[in-house]
Amino acid sequence: MKKLMLTVVAVGLGLLLVAPSFAFGPREGKSQKAGYGNSDAASRSYCSQAGLSRLDLTDEQKTKIEAMHLAYQKDTRPIREKMSDKSVELRRLWAQANPDKKNIEAKQKEVRVLRDQLEDKRTAFRLDVNKVLTPEQREKIAAYGWGRKSGFGPRGGMRGPDRGFGPGMCY
Length: 171
Hints:
mainly alpha
């Protein structure tokens, strides 16, 4: 009976930890507009979404921002991959029958270090994008807010253009 209960608890905990990763999956065929789930990689970019289209960017600005965004993605990919690997390792540590506090705390610290590196790179990217924008465009971003989402909860509920599920403002 104890083994059955322990197995049920372990599976439940595993499902609880894995469930958020399925929150935003591909949305093929949901909309004809560019956004999540479309096969065109450039259209999936946050910066090609409605957030920056509200700023009336020139073609030169769009090109510069897209190039910076691609460089940012390339630069942060190893960090994101490491963070993903460490998160999986952390979940495995938690899933053990007798989780070791020291190992879990050490792994959490590693994930935090990677998250801080990612945040530093995100801040640098946003500052670089800000340099490309005109003062009027910066005012629009300040009014709308970098990364501020509409909807409920810390990340927003229904957000993006046409109340879709895509991202709001660029980052």
